[in-house]
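A.,

Following up on our hallway conversation. Structure tokens first:
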């Protein structure tokens, strides 16, 4: 008895479940039909473009295409102009370097010509007459002559000295030195011994050049000249006065 009722109950539940499934299916189909109808009605309600509107849209589209082509052409022209500007900037940079080099060269020439005041490190060389030897018959064998001074000055210039002075008198490209008895004349001005030669430049290079074995120092010492060399941290030379 209980088994019959249980079977009957299961059958009823199965029938109800089928009813629920069919109801959901019909509900979804109805919704889809309603949505499709609404969409169709909406498209039918949209007004069709007139001939004038279509021509206007086409004209605007053509204008847009034309403007885009002009924009691309202008962009290309801008890129070319920017390249030209870069080329000009490079040329100006090179010209600026050339002018800078010319200014440096002009400054060096002014220094060599004695036209400007100069200051820097360098060396100081002192040349003094040798000790008197009574056995020496010729007094000229132990005094400083102009050729001794020339040897020092030439070596200093060769070694990179930018400015040279004798007893404080600045030398120029046209300076001359002559021996006049116990004194020497520099551009007409007399200077007695000892002769102090100052030079502005790399002190290490200048001193090394003068102290080379068999070089200027050794030659002067062999000729009874008292030779002293000192490095200077700062040497100041005033410009030459014009005539």
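Then the amino acids I'd put at each of the 243 positions:
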């Amino acid at each position: 008895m209980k088994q019959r009722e249980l079977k009957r109950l299961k059958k009823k539940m199965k029938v109800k479940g089928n009813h629920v499934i069919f109801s959901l299916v019909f509900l979804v189909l109805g919704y889809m039909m309603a949505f499709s109808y609404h969409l169709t009605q909406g498209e039918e309600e949209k007004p069709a473009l007139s001939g004038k509107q279509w021509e206007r849209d086409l004209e605007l589209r053509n204008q847009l295409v034309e403007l885009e082509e002009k924009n691309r052409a202008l962009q290309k022209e801008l890129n070319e102009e920017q390249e030209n500007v870069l080329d000009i900037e490079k040329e100006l940079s090179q010209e600026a370097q050339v002018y800078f080099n010319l200014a440096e060269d002009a400054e060096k020439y002014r220094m060599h010509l004695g036209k400007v005041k100069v200051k820097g490190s360098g060396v100081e060389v002192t040349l003094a007459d040798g000790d008197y030897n009574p056995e020496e018959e010729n007094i000229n064998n132990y005094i400083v002559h102009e050729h001794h001074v020339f040897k020092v000055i030439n070596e200093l210039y060769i070694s990179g000295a930018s400015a040279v002075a004798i007893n404080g008198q600045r030398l120029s490209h046209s300076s001359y030195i002559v021996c006049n008895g116990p004194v020497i004349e520099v551009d007409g001005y007399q200077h007695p011994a000892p002769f102090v030669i100052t030079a502005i430049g790399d002190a290490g290079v200048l001193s090394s050049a003068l102290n080379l074995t068999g070089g200027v120092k050794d030659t002067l010492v062999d000729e009874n000249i008292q030779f002293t060399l000192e490095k200077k941290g700062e040497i100041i030379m005033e410009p030459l006065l014009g005539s």
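The radius of gyration is 53 Å. Curious whether your intuition agrees with the design.

B.
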